[in-house]
Amino acid sequence: MPRVVLVGESCRRLAGGLKEIDVEADTIRRLLLELERRFPGLGRQVEEGMAIAIDGTIYQDTYSVALRPESEIHVIPKIAGGCSPVARVSVARCGSIPSERRTRP
């Protein structure tokens, strides 16, 4: 039976504090449905706000990925990408420093 490892407080809170859960499922779609059935809100949280790694590989589109009975699924918070407004301000300020005053690593 695949084992789900929950990383992050939001998922653990929805799972009643559990860090690991054994779930009968042969695809990620079925796993999400089972998590939602057993722990209302958890399947939705995983689907909308978490990244999924299956046996050490992070997948973008996981619905149809087959799970083996010995699979280990890590559910981890997604990391936002891009440049925040604060970072843009910092870059803009750095660009205005005269070249003779800039330091290089």
Descriptive notes:
With about 100 residues, the chain is an alpha+beta fold. The protein has a single domain (about 5-80), classed as Beta-grasp domain (Ubiquitin-like (UB roll), Roll), CATH 3.10.20. The protein is about 35% helix and about 20% strand. The chain has helices spanning about 10-15, 30-40, 40-50, 85-95, and strands at about 5, 20, 50-55, 55-60, 70-75. A 5-stranded mixed sheet has the order 2-1-5-3-4. A hairpin with a 2-residue loop joins strand 3 (about 50-55) and strand 4. Helix 2 (about 30-40) crosses helix 3. The radius of gyration is 20 Å and the shape is globular.
Please describe the structure with a list of short key phrases separated by commas or semicolons.
105 residues, 4 helices, Ubiquitin-like (UB roll), 5-stranded mixed sheet, 20% strand, 34% helix, single chain, disordered C terminus
Q: CATH H level: which superfamily?
A: Beta-grasp domain
Structural class call reads: alpha+beta
Q: Could you say which overall geometry the principal axes of the C-alpha atoms support?
A: globular
Provide the CATH top-level class: Alpha Beta
Order of helices and strands: EHEHHEEEH
Q: Bin the strand percentage.
A: 15-25%
Query: Percent helix among the residues?
Result: 25-40%
Number of helices, where a helix is a run of at least 4 consecutive DSSP H or I residues: 4
CA-based gyration radius: 20 Å
**Cross-sheet strand order for the largest sheet:** 2-1-5-3-4
Low-confidence runs of at least 5 consecutive residues: 83-105
Kindly state the number of beta strands. Answer: 5
Count of all domains: 1
Give average pLDDT, whole number: 80
Write the CATH fold name: Ubiquitin-like (UB roll)
- Major sheet summary line: 5 strands, mixed
Distance between the termini: 50 Å
CATH architecture: Roll
